[in-house]
Every structure is written in C-alpha cells, then in structure tokens.
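Possible race condition, two jobs.
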Amino acid sequence: MKGYRIILLVVALWGALSAFAQLNNGTNNQYSYSATGANAGNRDRQGNVRDTTAVNDANTVPIGLKAWKIDPRFGNIIDATVDSLLTGFQNSGDNGGTTLQFNHLGNLGAPRQNRIFFNRELESQSYFSDPYDFSVVKANTMSFINTLSPYTDIRYYKSFSSKYSEEYFKSYFAVNVNKKLGFGFHANYLYGRGMYTAQSTAFFNGGLWATYRGDKYELHALLNMDNLKMAENGGITDDRYITDPVEMAEGKKEYDPIDIPVNFNKMWNHNTNFHFFMTHRINLGFYKEVVTDSAPNPEKTLANDSINAVVLANDSTSITLRPVGAMASEKPEGQPSDSAAVAQAPQKGPKGKKPMPAGTELAKPADDGHNEIMAGEPSDAHPDSTAMPPRQFVPVTSIIHTVQLDMDKRRFISYDNNKTAEYYAHQFFTDSTDIIKHNSVRNTFALQLREGFNKWAKAGLTAFVTHEWRQFTLPDSVPGSKLRSARDYKENNLSIGGELRKAEGKALHYTLLGEYALTGADAGQYQLTAKGDLNMHILKDSINVGVNAYIKNLNPIFYFRHFHSKHYWWDNDDLEKTMRTRIEGHLSSEKLGTSLRAGIENIKNYTYLNNASEPVTTGEKTTAWKNNAVVSQCGDNIQVINAMLRQRFSVGILHLDAEVTYQKTSNEKALPLPKWNCYGNLYIKTALDKKVLKVELGAEVSYFSKYYAPDYSPVIGQYYLQNPENTVEIGGYPLINPYVNLHLKRTRIFLKMFNAYQPKDNLRYFWAPHYPLNPTQFRLGITWNFYD
C-alpha cells in the first residue's frame, strides 16, 4: 500500500504543476490560453490566429526545450543535451552502466564500482551514498531544462523473472513560468526483488528544482531526498553453485537461484539522505545596442538572443539542440548521428508574419548565454523603425554564493547474532542496529571577472573562499559493558582559491583551478587542476584535442579516519595525506568515428579498505576465517597506466561500436584492476513506415580479463580487498545481450535478453566475488516524453 501511495502522490503533484503551468501560460502574456492551445479569440499560444479548418490542435502546442548542467562550485553553465538517442537505450536502466563497465552485486540498484580506474570518482564525505550513484542524483548530475510548454518524461524498466522481477520507474517534469523562471521535479522508484535470497532493493528518491536566469540575477536550486533500503545476503556460500552446479547437486537436481544458500538473511542497510543545493549570483555590467541590418528580414530572424541551444516551434516529433557558437548550417560538434532531427514542417512566426521556411533557425549572437528567447516568443528586435533598438546585457563582474546542505543517516541492521558471531571476528555490541549520521554545511563566496566583456578579457578570473562545517555521529562503547552511546566529531575547514576559465569561442577552451585549505582538519591539503581542449577543422573533419591534469594532496575522508560499528572499528589519527598526480590526453575525429584517450597517474599514500580476516585454527591447521576490515595506506608510489580506444564503424545499415580499455597497476595487491575491458555493440539500424519508426536490432558483448576484484562488505556497504589467504578470480566471461530498440515519435522501447550466453563448461558470471549476476532474463524498457 505504501508504494501505491507514493505513486499517487507523484501523479497528484504532476497534475497540480501542470495546472499551474497552464494558468501561468495565460496570465503572463496578452493572450489567455486554454488547455487545448486556443482561447476565446481563437489564437494559438504564439498569438497567431488559428485556422480551425486546417490546424490540428496538437500542433498549437509550442515544442522546444534546451537543457544544461551546472558547475556545483560556482554555478557556471555546462551545455547538455536531452536524452533522445536510440543507440545505447537498451542500457539506460542497467546497473552496469552504458557500456557495462561497472562491477556490482547482480541486483538492480545494488552498490557498484567502476572497473576503469580513470573513471572512478573520489570518495566523498557522503561516503555511504557513493556506491549508489546509479540512483542518487547530485548537483553536478542534475539536468535543468527551459521549455516552451510543460514537459514530462516518463520511464519504466522491468525484467521478466516471474515473482523475482525488477522494476524501475522514473519521472521528470519541467515547466516555465516565463522565459527566465522555470521549475520542476523528479521522482524515481526502484524495486528489485532479487533472484537470490535476501537480495532485494527498494529505493525511492526525488526532488524539486528551480532556475532563474535573468540579466542581473541568476539562481539554480535543488532539493533532493533519498530513501534507500537494501537487503544484504553476504554473497552465496559456495561459488560452485554457479561454476559447477552439477557437482553441488550431486546429479540429483538443479538449483534455482533462490535456492542457493547465502551467508545472511536477516541483514539490511538503510540510507536516508537530504540534500539542499543553491547557487546564485548578482551580475554587474552594462547594456549595449545590438548591431542589426538596416532592413531586417522577419522571416529569417525571430529573436536577437538565445542560449546554447536552438529550438524549433510546432514540431511534435523532434528537438534540435545546438552548442554555443554553432552556425545555422553546421551540425553540432559531437552530436550523434541518431539525435533528434531538424523539423521539416513550416514554422509559424509572430502574429502577422509569414511562416518561416523549413529548417530556419533563430539568430544567435556570440554571448554568454543570457537573454534567451525561444521560438514562438515575441522578439525585442521589432522591424518598426520607431521602436527602441534591441539591447544586450554584457556582464562584467559576478558576485557568487553557493550553499550546500547534506544530511545523511545510515542504519546497519542485523538480527541474527548467532550467525554474525560465527562469521565476523568481532561483536562489539549486542543490539541489532548501528546508526551513523553526517551533517554538513558548505558555503562558497566568489568574485568573478567575466569572460568576454571586452576584447582584452579573453578569459574569466574568479577568486573564492569556502567554509565547510561537518558533524559526524558514530556509535561508541560504554565502559565496562557492551552497551553503546553516541559520539560526535566536528570539523571546520576554511580554504581559498582561484580559477582562470575560457569557455567561449569555438577553438580553444581551458580551465585552471587551485585551492588551498588554511584551517581545520583538512589544513594543508591542496589541489591544482587543469583542463583544456582545442577544436580544429582539417580536411572536412572535426578534430578535438584535449588534456586533463591535476595534482591533489588530500586528507583522507572522515570515515577512513574514524569508523565504529558492531563488527568493524578503527580510529586512525596518523593517516598521511594522499598525493595524486595525473596527466591524460585525448584525441577524437568525428569523421573517422575515432576517440583515443591515454594517461598515467601516480599515487603516494594510497588509502584503501583492506581485508583483515582472522584465521580459526584447529591444532596447527586453519579451518576457517572470521571476517574483519581495516583502513590501510600504501607508503610506496603506485602507478596506473590507462589507454582507451573507441571506434564506430558503419556500412549501410550495419553498425559496430567498439570500446577497448587497457590499464596497468604497479601494485595489484593494494589496487587490483583488470588489464582489459572490452565492449562491442553490433547492430543494424534502419527506419520503417516512411521513416517514422526507427529500429535497431543487434547484440552487445562485455568482457574483462580475470583479476582478483575487490569483495563487498555489508558492514560498511563498500568494496574492499579480498582475504589474501582465500582469493578468487572473476572475469574472463563474455556477457552477451541481444536486443531490439524502437523509436516512434516521442516514444522509445527496448526489449533485451540479458546474459543470453551460458555455456555449461564456463559458468562464471560474477561481477563481484561471491555475488553472481542474474541468469538469463528478458528486460523491457519504455520512455515517453510529452508536452502540455
């Protein structure tokens, strides 16, 4: 019943926001519109007179949106595209990632870790949420949308495994009050029953967001809440139930996944998180007149300003997004070939004007993303010679404030004390629940000299100061008993820094950032990062060359320094700072479909979770191991080399997308990595029914070489090293998934057969030690986006 109430609440909220948007569409301009796009004056949403004999009501809804993400430190805009691609859609709801590069526990939403070291994120102070990045939305991953009409995206994923199926529902809603102010929400519900005992996941998360992008004031705000419940089974008791099922069954029967014994069935992790993020800025500058032709042609120009995306009106099937500076005749750099196409239908202009020719785009000056006017909105550049000339705001200086509030609570629940006493080396408490809390408030104040306000300002310069207050609450022991109390740890950190950034223009872009911690637990830590890319056109090909480098001397996160629980306990006040130095380059060719990336990283004082299991001996023979974990540092330098090649091939309707990654670690005991990660996707791609229905039919394969992958510990909810005296290799198994993708107007559907290849002599489908993947199952996914 609780799940149904949540769904009803989401639906009711969506309906309320839709009604509010409809109301605002009528009250924020000179026309009063109904839900059908018409009013008493028989005008459409753009103010044009409706021809009721020739215009379908659906076409009166203005279609168009643009999307972006933000830099969570300063709120700088980062161009993004709306997910409308067909290729790769079959993995959009897969816990393994878009190219199946994540290790995970098998079930949907379960904790995961990227096998490619250069793609891993650093540990955060919200440590227990890090492995759930498949579901958790953060400020740097949130997509903000500006839309001409209320926009909704609904997604549903399901696996068909009788009563052990997995389901994932996602919703996203966006609406604009006017061209500057917009808001929306997202709500996600994931439930994986699990094909193995005590493996279920039940996640609900959602949030509200709002944006305001005016000339002199900008704001982005995000409120997120997560409720993540996961049953922990500790893995299966013997891998031979998968690798050699005939031996384990002794020829009598075959084991179903639900019948395979597991280590625990009365253990859970429950994470509840509350996050608030807001970045806003005051822009100081001046207005300048926009230089226009003496006799502008209203058929070619509907607006004199736009931001990072061009949208076309009255197209019910497609959206075109353009990067900053893209010319009307150019294809956006990096835009996949199967992205939404340019509308072919004639477009309506403002009242009294002739229709725009098919494919005509809005005019776009080289600005920094302000004063956007989307298709269908009245333009300030009126051809009337008596009107005031159009003006553009030029920001010179910005005063920035960013605040982030995090409230995390984790409960580790274990009811079977007899079972855990046999499995774990320590039993510090007798009660059933560990509760750990983390609260933090982070404020950043910055003064930014904006890029491009005159011909000498080739880059923007920012100076900032950051203060972060943290409080951690851990269980603590009561002297002389096995009862517990609570202990608080508080930290205050103050740091300063600066950034030099060039983001405008087509050719060269770069960002240089430095930060140094002055006081607090992190005093003395620093980081210097540099990113740059150069875009060139050579022999009708778009070539992109880039570099990414950093030096980071970072204090280990709090939970590496202190952790108390029922089974693990450490206080490490003597950990050294971890020094990481990386340089990486990349090269891509759009014409050849080739992307090459290579780099090297050196790590000193690498900090990691180590396995400290203790032997159980009978006489002089070790008969068993009792589990324990500690935090370790490697004093020697560790080098990691990485090289990745991506290649797209196509011959007619036949396509092959391939990705091969080679990586080498100099210390496989402290930092185990597979040498090879491979992904291939072979498919045919065509269109049916007058090109209205797009179809992809193919199969994908993922493979990584054998290695001693990190194990998973339910006590801390993280990956840690295997017991060195009892290791197992995983990998060397090709995961093959045939699939079909369909795209009809605004609806995409996939049907995939997961883990189709299961040879009897090589059943090794483990992506974490002792945690097998799901056996063969069918998966279905559907996404539908609509307006109004």
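Job #2 (started ~2 s after job #1):
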Amino acid sequence: MKDDTNTTKPLGREKKSFIGWLFFPISLFPLAALLTYNPYAIEQIQNPPELTTNWIGPIGDLFAYHGYDLLGLAIWVIPLYCILTGCRSACGEPLKMNIRILWRLILLTTLACLMEIFAAELHVAGIEELRVKINTSNSGGLIGFLFGRKMLIPLIGPVGSTVLLLILFTVSVLGEIGFGKLLKFSRMIFRWAIGKSDEFDPGDTEPGTPEYNEAHALFEKAKLAREEAQRQKEEEKRRIREEKEEEKRRREEEKRIKEEERRKAEEERAAARRRLNEQSYDDPFVRNEPQPKKYEKPAPQKQSSPAATAQQQNKPEGSNGNGNSPYILPTASLLAPLKKSEADHSDVAGMSQKLIDTLKLFGLNTTLAYTVQGPVVTKYAISPEPGTRPEKFTALQATLMMALKAKSLRIEAPIPGEDKIGIEVPNLKPAGISFREIFESDEWKNSKAELPLLFGKRADGKELVADLASMPHMLVAGATGQGKSVCLNSLICGLLMTRTPEQLKLIMVDPKSVEFTPYSSIPHLLVPVITDNKKVVFSLHWAVAEMEKRLKMFARARVRNIYDFNHRKTLTQTDMFGNDSEINSDMPKTVPYIVIIIDEAADLIGQCGKEVNPDIQRITQKARAAGIHIILATQRPDAKIITGTIKANIPGRVAFKTSQAIDSRTILDESGAENLIGRGDMLFRGKDGLLIRAQGAWISDDEIMNITEFIEQHSSTQFDETFANKLSRVKEAAIEDPFASNEDDPDNKPAPAEDKATRRELVKAAANADDFKKAVECVINTKRASVSHFQRQMGWGYNHAAKILDMLTDRGIVSPPQGMGPRQIVMDEDQLIKILNGEDIAGETSVDGGGSTDVSENGGDDFTEEQL
C-alpha cells in the first residue's frame, strides 16, 4: 500500500507539470502585446487608424492601450507576473487564490503612483520620453493620477509621498516573494555559514605535532556533540508531533463514541415514545400502565411527622429534597441548537411612501418618523399634522390594509408616550424565535425577577421578560390554535430552569389531561396534576387557607411580604453543647412561592363558579404578599365567565388572536387582538397598563421532555403528603356513560344519599367551628369576651353567642361566669395565636345542641372525611 502511494505522487506531479508547459506560451501574450504595441493603430488616438502590427492582433493593441491608460508604465509588471505564474505552473505547483493577490495589487498601485510622481513632480529623466512614445496622458495612468498626484502630494508633498510609496513597494515585493521563503533563505545562509565553521582550522600549528592532534581531537569532539544535540532536538520534535497526533486521534475516537451513544439513546427514547403513543391511541381507557422512561428516579422520601416537615422546609437552598445531593438546575444544552432565521421585511421604503400617499388621498398629511423592523411585524411610525384627530386613522384601517396588500394590520393611535401614530404591518416572512434564544439572552440572564416569565420578543426585537411576583396574577386567553399552550409551556419551563423546588411550588390544573402530562413527576408540584373539577375546588380552598396561615405567620415575624420574610435576619443562640439554634424555631427559614396554573379556566368557572369564584377573588386580592400567584388560561374569553370582579385584580393579561373584537375587549379591556396574525403573535399588558405587541418563543415537545427528564433524573417528587392525601379522598365525578368500560368501579358509583338530619348536623358543626375561630380573633383584637360583646361585634343572636362563649370557656380561653360582668381572659395573646394557627389544639370542643366538631391543626379550615 505504501509503495503504491509513493509511485502515484510523482506521476501526479509530472501530469501537472506537463499541463503547465502546455499553458506556458499563453503567459507570454501580455509581453508580446506590449512589445509590439502601436498607439496609432487605436481609433481613439488616430482616425483613421493604421493597420495593426501587433503580434497578438487587435486584442493586443486594446490590452496595451487600456493598460497604459489605467496603470501607465506600471503595466509592464503584469507580463512579469504572467511569466512567473507560467513557470510555477510548468514546475507543477498548484495555482491558488491567496494573499499574494493582495500584495500584487498593492505593488501595482504603488508603482503607478511612483511613475506619476517621478514624471510630474521629480522630473526623472527617461520617464517623460517613454510617456510621449506610447502616447498616453499620464505616466502612472488613471490610478497614479488619482492616488499619487491628487491625494498623496497635497497631503504630504512629493518627497514624503515618494518615501511612503517606496516603503509600500518594498513591503509588497517582500510579501510577493513570501516571508516564509525569505526566512527559509536566511536559515539556509545561516546554516551555510555554520557549515564553514565545521572545517577544521589548524591555525599556527603544524600537522603531526601534539598541539595539532589535540586541537583536532577537541574539534571532532565538539562537532560530534553538535550533531548529537541536533539529532536529539529533531527526535524530540518528532516525538512531540507523534504525541499530538495520537492525542488528536484519541479525542476524535472519544467524540465518535459519545456521539454514537447519544444517537442510540435518542433512538431508544423515540421508540419508547412511539410505543407509548400507540398504546394510548389503541385503547383510550387503559389506565395505570407502565410508562417508558429514560432514567430511573430514586423513590420519594416520605415525611412522617410535622417535625420532619419543618426540617424539610428549613433545608438549605439548592438541595434536591431527599438530602442526598444539591439540586441541579437544567442547562441550555438540553435545548435544541439555535437556527439562524431572518425576517423578510419587503420594501420598507416603498411601503412607507405608499402608506403616506394613501393617507394623503383622505386629507391626512403625514410624514414618516421612523420604522421598527421586528421579527414578525414592521412598525411604521408617522407624524400627523397638528390638530389631526387620532380616530381618523383608526377609521381607515381596512383601506390601508387593502392599499398595502397586508393580511392584517393594527393601528396604535397614538403610540403610548409619543405624538405619533403606529401602523404595524406583518412581514412577508416572519423570523422564528426559539426558547433557547431568549434563555441565552442578556435580558434573561440579568433579570432580577423573583418569578421570571419568558414570553418571547417584542415587536421591536427586544426580549420580553416579566416578573410574576410583581404582576402578581395573569390571564392568558385567545382562540384555539393561536399559541396559548406553547406560551404556557415557555412560562413553565422558564420557571423550572431558574427556580429550585425549595424556591417554587406549582399546582397545575389540566381538565384535558394532556397539556401538563410532561410535568407530572417534577419535584416542584405540591400535588399531582389535577384533572377533576371537584379537586380543583378543594385545592383553591387549601390555597386560601395557606394564604391566611402565611399572612398570620408574617405578622408574627413582623414582615410585610414573602420577600421580606425569606430575607429576614434570624436570631440564633448557642446551647450548652455549642450548637447554634434559631430562636423562633417554630417558623421555617424560608417559604416557597406557590404558582397555581389553571388551564381551561372557563370550563372550571362555568361548572363550579359558585364554589371557585370566591376563592379566586380572595387569592387575587390578598395572596400577593403571601407569595401565592395564579395564572388563568382559557380559549373561551366570555364576559359571563371571566367576570369583571376577577379581572379587576389580575393586571397581567396576554391576548392571542381572537375571532372578534368583543373577545379582545374581554381580555384586554380594549380591541386589537382580533387584528393579530396568529402563531404566537400576542398582545401583553403588564402592571404598568401599557400594551406591548410580542411574538411568543417556540419550545418543542422534545425540549420539554429533555428538561423534565433531566429534573426527574436529579431529583424525586416532593408532594405535600397532607394536602395530597386529603385531595386523593375527594371522589371524582361519577361516569354517567352506561357503555363505559369501568362502570363497575365502586369509586365511580353514585354515593348513597345522606340522611338530612346528619347533613344538617355536619353543616352546623362546620359553621360553629368557623364562628369559634372568629370569636378567638375577636378576643385577640378587643381583649373582651362576653355574650353582649359578641352580639355587637359579630351580629349573632343571644343563644348562638352564648354557645360560642361556652366553647371558649370549655377550652380554657376565658374564665367561668362571675356575676354580671365580662369574662376574664385566661390565656395571653401568644397562646391565643397558637390556638388560632392550630399549633396547640388538643381534644374536642363540645357544642350544646349542635353535635361536636374537631378543631383541626390549621384552625378549622380543613374538611373531615365525612364532609368530603
């Protein structure tokens, strides 16, 4: 194999050399054309011209005439270049377009300028005679005249120009020869000089004498030492070169193996997804079948006591919940690589003029102020004449759309904060915006938001990032298929990639049972994804109770909101063993934010409006300070469903394309969403009330799967056991389809009708428990406890007020009756607050005539199993 290679290379070089010798005569054409040039054979010089005597014919005369006209006498360098190129080609060297072309251009330019300066300014002998002989106007041609006489001489004079041009000429000649070749030639001269020193110089000594022999022996020894050092140096270079090549081969092999493993893993994951999809499509009633997963997750660690719960809450930030290793946030490497996508803005100048001309036809004289070329739309800002009403532009929307041949058009009349009118026209080809592009942007990385939301890009191309904590609630709505689900996925993935489970908890409501399926095993969930409306009602009740509990805890800690609570200074004291312990150990060090995401909110409110509307109103009104936020998403923005009371406390609005203007007014309180172009095009309104047009970021299902699988691999589910257990006891709605395959399931059978008396007792017990809580709050606030006091403060009747006072007496909160005066309050305020928070409740409270009720750990807000 080696011999074949050695025999092939010389044959290839001989073949190139043979072809080069065939083309070598062509390289002599420019020289022949210049040598036999007759200026009077050119029609522009003499009319009629003489017969051409040029060896190359009329083409040779034209080449010489135009060459002298362009470069002057410097044109003689071109035949030299051609001959050198022909010689190299004849020697078998390949012809390459490299940096030598630049050096040749510099050499031609400097030589033409020098010829012009020598003839016109320095009057060098012989140049002017040559110019007259060839009958040209300038010795340096057009280039020499422009660069030499008109530019350099007025700036630095004839002498300075000559020195500068000679320096450039010398550098270009050296560059043409090649700095590498010059260095090689210098080394050859140096080695030749050293080689002369290798000859022994006997000096004054005569051959055969002891001094001669000793000097010759020393010379031979030094010569051998130099040769050995040179050999070792070359050997070391060869060894280093071989090591580098071996290391390069090893890295390439490792890279190939990793790429092969990744490809196999991708194929296995794709095959598992296909099997899962085939199973789900073949039998829609299959439940609890094993799900194919790429990674094996560790089993979730259960908490057995409230102390364990407190310990879990006081874990240092960044733990994964099981105490084994720190929680690792997903990285951008899980996302698809960025793809370059550019928008087609069409003819912006032509569209601007057409827009102004169309408005002028209707008596609106305007001028173009500026244009903003965004990824999806191009915004034309026009300045109207003073006194022009903005409503006139809105009335011409359909006319402008027809004149500009636009699929849709939106008018901002006026642009907020400016005295201009904005007209947004869709681009012929929109630019795609990926989730990774926004995730790696400086706007997202430098964001100081507590709950950052990744939306996409504004119409002007800037990234749109918001903070849910300051918003504090949001409504997302739009027609079907316009980008609502992709927007929700972008918001959720942005939170998952920046916040740990100790910083953020989620409650997801998915009535369709398909939107939030990828997130079913992430550790950020408080409870599994909720798909039944009855469980949603209970979850909102729990959120309200958690809000009240947190607000009371914040009051005890003397802070105003969750941010101040999580960043408060905690006091510690050292016990007898030298360990530091927190003084207020009953409070967690930090509490996580809770985000409730409800998909298809219109369906929930339509079915359970009476139960969920009060809870949604309380959460939107009071839960901001407690760190509980809600995101409502729907594709049916009906004013009867999304009422004004709910929207009044939800300043954050995101509207995708709607079918009609009334839906846009329902979402944004103004029209405009009906003029969007769809596919992620949105209108965003934040807490400041300004309306921003943006394009949502696209995140694929594979990217979502990569993020959730990474999270599942490095952590385990961390459901709130108390909340999840109570939620699991809420029975789902019975299936009324007589043909359903699980109609024999006892959980789906209708519950037996309760006895009316029993139901009345349960309702009365719940009401008494709630009134007991209100009475304790009244005692804390007013420091008084009597029947008449409760009648005045609570509006109760005498019998009910006396019954609640007896409950307080049985619990030891107030003293037994002593005459006609008010009761004495036995417990202090801290003990009453603990009872109110459910931290020191023991036993049952007997209610005369009203059955009995359990005061649970969270102050009576939980439901008993019989009530559920």
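The longest strand covers residues 366-373.
Logs attached separately.
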